[in-house]
Amino acid sequence: MLYSMQLDGLATGMDTTAVIDQLVALEQRPIYNYQQEISELEMTKGAWRDVNSRLDKLEDRTTDLKLSSTYNSRSASSSDKDIVTATASNDSNEANYSITVNNVASTQRISGNRLDDSTTAIKDLTGFGSIAAENNIQINGTDITINDSDTLADISNKINDAEAGVNASIVDNHLVLESADTGEKNQIALVDDNDLFNSLGVLQTGDNDNSLSTNLMEVKDADTALGLTGSFQIDVEGGTGSGEIIVDETTTLNDIKSQVDALALGGDLSASVTDEANGYFSLSISSSTAGSDIKLSNTGTENILSDLAFGNRSYQNELQTAEDANIDINGIEGITSSTNTFSEAVDGVTFNINPDAVVNDGIDTASASVSVSKDTGKATDAVKAFVDQYNSVMNFLDGKTDYDEEEEKGAVLQGDSTAMRLQTRLRSLVSSKIKDTGDFKTLSSVGIEIDRDGVMSFDKSKFTEALDQSSEEVMSIFNGESDSDGFDGMAVRMDSYLDQLMQSNTGLIPRRLDFYDTRIDSLNDDIEDVERKVEMTRDRYVEQFAAMETAISEMNQQMSWMQSQLSSLAGSTSMLSSNN
């Protein structure tokens, strides 16, 4: 830019920069106009963005009013939460249930004997002199390798790291194993190796595993498919090789028994299925020949042994047995669950037994009543939230379309026909009649009123009475649909209208916001064009004033020369005159 090196008025003494700035200011007037328009557009766009945000929240509240679950909600209350709590689904029946707790579900806990300490390698402890360098044990079908250099603490950590459904801990140098889940079917299944568990004092028989049984399988009978897949190998020590058992989703306990019985592995290998009562069955594989221990290993990609949990259960120290919860419901006795949750005893109702509940021992009773009833709170909360958000939208629009007579100034959306139509349409949707028949035809009939100032109010008592009288009809006021009910409920109409307003790319508000963005971008481009022209004009003025300064400077130089010449001529003339 030429004017960056400009030196003002060297010849004329004029403040040429100030003169140029004044001339350029005239050229910049369109920029100020564009900037003012941008500022107004930004304010208008911001107002519509806020409208969109409030309408989006209103649509969320409207969606809640369209859901049947809002009006058909059920609540379950307990007379003694220290004994039982409950939850009820929307399709559950209103009823009362008398609950007697006969037993709570518990985990199984077993322990080993007390060792000298938990930080010394087991090979150096008393009783482990013949332990192998490497021992491959199984817990619930999961393989774990224990080395003779491991300490009791190492063993506990390896068991926990294996995630075999057992939590291991050390208490006073005892290894304690506890099933991760409650219930009889989650007993701890152990397979020993080199008498490791026997040396730890966990099992009585050690690695003499001539009989291994599965955990309790919860099936209808022994001919019901287990739904498991995988394969495992059976080896009998001193036998005649190994055999493989194949399991697919249709395989039953009796099918596995037949496959085992068909193997010719020596040791008088056989299998049996036992009905353990209460809907449980188990499978045992036994070898009646002394020294013919059974070894099992997975052969497929699935860990079928973990699912079946074959193991030795000759525990030395069973501190707590694995038990199912047992309750009576309305006189129906002996209802059991492997957990303290009963979700299938009553349709739509889940009972949660407190694990610390004092069970019924014939002297003290652990009884409580559970009542399932309508929960009007969910519906009233949803309606109140809608009313509050509706008022928020309308109040905001009122403020943005207002005109201040004292200041004679309108708000940013004052006179905006779209904003006025929006208010009118919203008010119409909530105040017009919804259907022609029935006890409830309008929102006002269920306690939702619009006053003369357009403010919506909610009469909770009136609404609750209407729900108690006919929850289905009240629900239809909001979520009825013309295809099934012959009319559209208020929430359906409102949701459809809001969708037209806010749908991405096609909605009225997004298109309007896009228009503002496009117009602002265009104005910024215009500003850049004017600024380029202004710079060109400034450069031209600088050049012209510089040329003027140069011309005047040259004229001044010529004048000075002429004056010097005239002075010289006058001096010569004076000398000639004096000589004469």
How many DSSP helices? 13
* Cα shape: elongated
Beta-strand residue fraction? 15-25%
Oligomer: single chain
What would you call the structural class? alpha+beta
Sheet with the most strands, sense and barrel status: 5 strands, antiparallel
Low-confidence stretches: 1-5
Radius of gyration (CA) equals 46 Å
Say how many strands there are: 26
Strand order across the largest sheet:
1-22-3-18-19
CA-to-CA gap between the ends?
Answer: 64 Å
- What percentage of residues falls in helices of 4 or more residues? 25-40%
How would you portray this structure in words?
39% of the residues lie in helices and 23% in strands. By secondary structure, the protein is of the alpha+beta class. The strands form eight sheets. The protein has a five-stranded antiparallel beta sheet, with no helix packed on it. Strands 7-8-4-17 form a four-stranded antiparallel beta sheet, covered by helices on one side. Strands 10, 11, 14 and 15 form a four-stranded antiparallel beta sheet that branches. Helix 1 (16-27) runs antiparallel to helix 13 and helix 9 (460-469) crosses helix 10. The radius of gyration is 46 Å and the shape is elongated. 29% of the residues are buried. The model is unreliable at 1-5 (pLDDT under 50).
List keywords for this structure.
580 residues; alpha+beta; four-stranded antiparallel sheet; five-stranded antiparallel sheet
